[in-house]
Amino acid sequence: MATETNKKTGISTEIDAIREDIQKLQNDLKDMFHSVGEQSKEKLQESKQKLEAAIKSLQGQAAEKFDEVYDSLREHSQDAVKKSRKQIEERPLTAVFIAFAAGILFDRLIGRR
Questions:
Q1: Which of 2, 16, 53, 70 has an alpha carbon within 20 to 30 A of 87's alpha carbon?
Q2: Residues 6+ apart with CB under 8 A from 87
Q3: Residue 3 pLDDT more than 90?
Q4: pLDDT over 70 for what percent of the chain?
Q5: Any residues with CB less than 8 A from the CB of 88 and at least 6 apart, and which?
Q6: The model's pTM
């Protein structure tokens, strides 16, 4: 009987030790998942900041390119206006006839509809 009691006590002690180990394992897993979750949040935050920086950079580059194209277009259009004025000053009758012909052509195109 004493041996049986000792065996039961020994088994009970081992079961309690296994329960404690399982509890420790559960706590360790919770801590690990929490740590992984925190690291993921940090990584996501870093990625978000990198993406925001890249977007701002691209916006800046696009704005610069737009300004360049706008300036170039404005410059070319001013040149075209100057050349047109010069042509009109040099050949005023030709300019009047061209304008007249363009008006007739425009009227016929609109008149067909």
A1: 70
A2: 94, 95
A3: no
A4: 91
A5: 95
A6: 0.46
pLDDT in tens, 65-76: 999 999 999 999
The more confident residue out of 100 and 9 is 100
Cα(64)–Cα(71) distance, rounded to whole angstroms? Answer: 11
What is the distance between the alpha carbons of residues 45 and 6, in angstroms, rounded to a whole number? 58
Tell how many helices (H) and how many strands (E) occur in the chain. Answer: 2, 0
Which residue range is the domain that position 65 belongs to? 2-111
How are the residues of the chain apportioned to helix, strand and coil, as percentages rounded to the nearest 5? Answer: 95, 0, 5
Residue with tokens 């000792």: 6
Do 95 and 88 meet the contact criterion of CB atoms below 8 Å apart? yes
**65 Cα distance to chain centroid:** 18
User: Is-contact 98 90, C-beta < 8 A?
Assistant: no
Residue type, 13: T
